[in-house]
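DATA CLASS: polypeptide
GOAL: derive structure tokens

***
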Amino acid sequence: MKIIGRIDEQNELQQYVESEAPEFIAVYGRRRVGKTFLIKEFFDNTFSFYATGLDKAETTKQLSNFNSALNKYGQIRYRTAKNWIESFEQLIHLLEHSKTKKRKVIFIDELPWLDTPRSGFITALEFFWNSWASSHPEILLIVCGSATSWMINHLVKNKGGLHNRVTRRMQIEPFTLCECETFLQHKKISMDRKSIVELYMIFGGIPFYLNMIEKKRSLPQNVDNLCFSKKGALKDEFSLLYASLFKNAVNHIKVIHALGKKTKGLTRSEISKASKMQGGGLTTVLEELEQCGFIRKYKPFEKRAKCALYQLVDFYTLFHLRYVKTHGANRNFWSSMTDNPQHRAWSGYAFEMVCLMHEYQIQQALGISGVLTETASWRSLETTPAAQIDLVINRNDNVVNLCEIKYAKELFTIDRKYANTLIEKKNAFIKETKTRKAVHLTMITTFGVTFNEHFNNIQSSVVMDDLFK
């Protein structure tokens, strides 16, 4: 299967191949996001050496597995090393005797799994890079891992022998809507864009999940089959996902559950109260969840950093907490949910999340992709009920876009009541923030806004198709 999308990532990898210096590249990203597939396909599985760590295996088994890889690529048979220093000495010997005249690409996958307690793996990796690889311009070392926090803390932010040794880092993000559409087309799956958006609301842009979609089933049938059937492939994904990334996943799941109850996010103190965690332990958990892409940290409009909110943004996790956890035994649950009030409430919020994940596409549609911007949310402290703006785009060209996001089955119509609500929100925003910038009302909808007498208050409109660009 060829690489779908990932154009920027492929261009980046090609630059590293063409570099005339030794390169040490750290590749990381959420589990199931397609890191290994990208590297293997880009290099057509042609490596001077390739090995992968074993999940929850002790040091002796890791060394034995590494030895098997050495013997696969070498011209002689190496005995199983007693420690990691010896293993990397054998790797140096293998590479020095390689007949490859071009780039020597070494790919070590699931690197965090190799770092078992008291194994000395990091010290040996330091030895390999500092004493040999860094002085050989033909070396291209790629290390990969789903445990993003480990990759960042032990490699990128290493304060020991690997300090500043990683020459490049690549964070592999989930697919965009455009890439999801291309992926489904490649699989010969016929799906309209509204259905693709709903698919994204449930599974996000995770290639592993998308690859499980069967073309013979409708979208609701696929969701039931994967998440709600007795043997659904993703029925237990939630527990497996977090347990595979964090040594003590209990604390991470506590925070996830707390954030799952408040869609707009919680402050650190609110998370501490809900999870009964505090101090450095909570800081570490929040940092690790953010690094792995499960949560995001953001500031309300023009608020100080201490007012920052943490928000759960992993689509599959949100869907699991809301539905799979409580309705997992009902094999036809999602099919029965079509277009009922509960489904409409969920889809409204989920579409907001899809838009937040496609801020760049929204800015493109507004013609401001070249303008320096900051995005935030805003909630009134004076109006009752509190006026709230889904997405605020604070622009460097003296304009603020107040974005209202609406998920509708057809053209969205602004009636008199809603038009007054929008004007009240805008006026409250101007009054409370005391902004001197021009404030534009922007509608982000699935199919656009009906052109009537109330449309005149809207400065700009973005539609679902714009998110696919």
Remarks:
- Residues 177-235+328-351 form one domain.
- The mean pLDDT is 92.
